[in-house]
Amino acid sequence: MATKRPVLCPHCGAQVKKNGYCSACYMPLNVLKKAYNTSNYHYNIGYDKAVARDLSGAIESLNTSLRYNKKNVMTRNLLGLIYYEMGEVVMALSHWVISANYMPNNNIATKYIKELRQDPTRLDNVDQIARKYNAALTYAHNGDYDLGVIQLKAILKENPHFVKGYLLLALLHIRTNNYENARTTLRRVLKIDKTNPLAIRYLHEMGDTDENIFKMRMQSVEDDGLFDEDYMSEVSVTVEGDTVIEGANKKMLKEYKARTRQTTVKTGEFGEVNFARYSGFYVLVGLVLGVLVLSFLIVPYQKKKARGESDKLIESYSEELAAKNSEIQALNLELQSVYSQLETELATGEEGSQMPDYSQIQHGMSVEDVQDMIDNE
Amino acid sequence: MINFEEELSRFAPIPEVSQAEEAIYNNDLRDISDIVSQITSEIKDAHSGMQPSMAGRIRR
Description:
The structure holds two protein chains of two kinds. Chain A is mainly α.
């Protein structure tokens, strides 16, 4: 007869008694099983919501799943992935680290953590986002809405999936009565998280119906111009002082600009800067810079170049001179040797045989006569 | 109508990478097993303070 395998407690790993309670932690096994099943049930709901891009709903369901079983690795991993998609990398990382701690082997969270660690630029970027977002939040609390908007736009340009950033930007746009920009911003939120409760509430407050919101989800956000136009464009006026319709949409504004050919002047703190005003100053600065460059860079270089060339010339001349000197020396030596040879030959001539007496030779004598005379001698 | 100050108070600062450790520790929530474990230990403590005859009766 086969022996029955002992039932182990899923909480502490000790053996479960016959009465259904753990022998070590006294935990009732049936309660734990029910809790784990409920956790998996909520995980499945969360997964379905995540697939349908209802990320806020998915987060809610997955958090419920964790309240039944905090060691549910699948839930932790999916929750981390959703936070990552929404641009909250530190939250994602914290869930993955806990998941990897509960199940070190055969866990996809370890792969995610490894990939993040191997990309220091990504981590640096994440750090920058957090700092800038927190700074924007401080600006908003202090009433510096313009600075907050600029800061948030800078973050969102680099990280177009940062949902919290969009929501704060939309709130600041609403505060500065830029409802059209707020709508454009919230449309981007709905593209990432279809049922974001905060985005939907803001849209309702701005007078949008459920039907409008449904249509917004269908619209493309590729060229919505959220980062193209200056957000102050909505309060533009013409040079003549006519208002260009406050809150006009971007298309209308573009058409108006094309028609009036740059006759609009932006108002507010961030108006266009007229660079022509400073042209004289720029010319002066250019001249000063030119003189400085000439005196500190070009002239020393030319001097150095000329000095180098003259040095080369002197060197070649001195080499040539040395060659000539050595040639003269050699010729002198040769001359000396010729002189000495001549001297020795002369000496031997005086001591040795008598030279023929050429005094007898007279003018007009033939060669034969001279030869005969020598022979006779 | 949207109350700006009230809405702004909903936005909390997000943790930086250097604060990731803190975020992990703060993430440690209580689940059903923690609650049951706490209840069990409380019952155990209560039994240890009772007379042995009473404690045995309750344990049964």
